[in-house]
Amino acid sequence: MDIVVCVKQVPLTAEAEVMVDDTGRDIKKERLVFDVNEADNYAVEEALLLTEKFGGTITLVTMGPESADKTIRSLLAKGTHEAVRLTDEHFAQSDAFATAKTLAGALKTIKFDLVLTGCYASDDGYSQVGATLAELLELPHATMVTGLQILDGKAKIERELEGGTHELLEIELPAVLTIQTGINEPRYASILGLRKAMKKPIKVMSLKDLGLTENEVGRAGSKTILERLSVPPKGEGAQILEGAPEEVSTKLAEIFRERGVV
Amino acid sequence: MKEILVLAEHRMGELRDVTLEMLSKGRELAQALDAQLVAGLLGRDVAVFSETLKKWAHQVLVVDDSKLENFNADAYQKVLGDIIKKRQPGLTMIGHTSFGVDLAPPLATQLGIPLITDCVDIQLKDGAPLATRQVYGGKLISEVSFVGTPCMVTLRQGAFPVEESDLKGKIAAVDSPLTEEITCRKFLQYVEAVVGDVDITQADIIVSVGRGIREEKNMPIVEGLAEAMGGVLACSRPITDSGWLSSDRQVGQSGRTVKPKVYVAVGISGAFQHITGMSGAETIVAINRDPNAPIFSVAHYGIVGDLFQVVPALTEKIAEAKEN
Ligand SMILES: Cc1cc2nc3c(=O)[nH]c(=O)nc-3n(C[C@H](O)[C@H](O)[C@H](O)COP(=O)(O)OP(=O)(O)OC[C@H]3O[C@@H](n4cnc5c(N)ncnc54)[C@H](O)[C@@H]3O)c2cc1C
Ligand SMILES: Nc1ncnc2c1ncn2[C@@H]1O[C@H](COP(=O)(O)O)[C@@H](O)[C@H]1O
Question: What is the pTM of this model?
């Protein structure tokens, strides 16, 4: 079973200060650390589990700058087989649709039985690329997958709905599935794996390799335009208790006592 | 723009909240644009919903077909795609739900129209919709415009208040274009949420732990606080994803909605998908070392600090307070 996994390198912003750059349309990247998007890490693990069971190869595909190679290598180190990076100045400012269009261009040059993506990228959070890709490739799809079993050319799938509810469905392969976090337990790469991955080639493709025109990619191929990024207005917000741990704890314990909590 | 179309969402015999939220926003936009607000209702035996929907829309289109009994993105795409091609609504609204993220992207792609997902607001600028979204886990907001109309949006659940409405919309049946069952994708069944030994939705005091706890071996730190407070332990998604607590302890969109008297969020950043499950708590306390964490905008009291120092100190002070 040959599997393509689309992976995106994203900035880790949970603990970082995120600042808007001078264009007003992007963030300042200098001080941020980048890594694989969380859901994509689970998609890679799912692909590893499937190829361990059924054989076949895993090809990683990413659209991004050369600096994404670091993330790609960390995923190659886990035992994925091949990697393709799509890099071209024309891809800049792609929206979710143009991203999917570019990825679809690359996927048309690769043989696969299954495509996995993450269900949500933690930077722009569209939850859109995977299912768009499916439509462009004219393949069936299921999003937010939290369980997957392959049987006789079909996939039995568990999808996450709201409030802890799930649905089970069956889908014909090849298909595009968008993987939700928690579906498995992603492994860590071994030191040996990391060493081997340093020597693996990463194939780079540009616009001319994808059979697409300038007008179909990047900002020109996008159907939506990011006009402006800004820091959300500070609402009322929390009353911040100041002081050393001891001191703030005393204040908070007092607040709890006043409210009859303890 | 002549028409705004809102796709009604329902599951297991219930209209989902996002439907009236979308219609409320839709009505505001329709008024400003002097457009008709149309609700699209797809399903089987769904007449009961049309009675509700007609109060919120100028027209309710009902497609009743046994092949639409359960949500199937492929079936919905065909039916809704046909309706949109025929009526050409300037804007189509779908919920940013599990169901919506499965349907909207392929549908918009098939129709060749722009889609902006997970919108928390839509304004009109020179008569064209301009969407507001949250990015980077809620640390920034983005304004996004469409390249041309017609266009499509998915709206975030819970982001738009439901306004009372008393329109007396006409109900119109539309023939289903589905001639055969969709075979490439088949719905099998629903699996309802499991209820474990502790029901966090009933708890008065909740200590909730997030990725800031870092390792499973650190969990006793927050267990200790929960115990001292006489509360139960809950968590954000990464904790259940890692298997450190069972899924019935997860608070948020894909977990439980809780309304305790006190909710103490420890090492939780405050992503919308989490906040939506706990913002109804009476008193919210956040302990986080990042002063810019979005959780501080919903919390009533905040402590900016290292949980590994603050939580043990707090546990001790509460134990002392109890003794006195
Ligand atoms: C469809 C969908 C559904 C989802 N459903 C849910 C849901 O139901 N519930 C849910 O919670 N999430 C849900 N999520 C995930 C959500 O988007 C966030 O990824 C998640 O809530 C983040 O959890 P967190 O705050 O624990 O982790 P992070 O965002 O990584 O935040 C960790 C926080 O800990 C703080 N921290 C780190 N170390 C310390 C320390 N020593 N002391 C103090 N603070 C520290 C950091 O500053 C940071 O703010 C969903 C996502 C999707 C796409
Ligand atoms: N630039 C990219 N390169 C490769 N895959 C991507 C890219 N952008 C998005 N994806 C994939 O699409 C998924 C969903 O992204 P999004 O629709 O932006 O939330 C991600 O988890 C990735 O698997």
Answer: 0.97
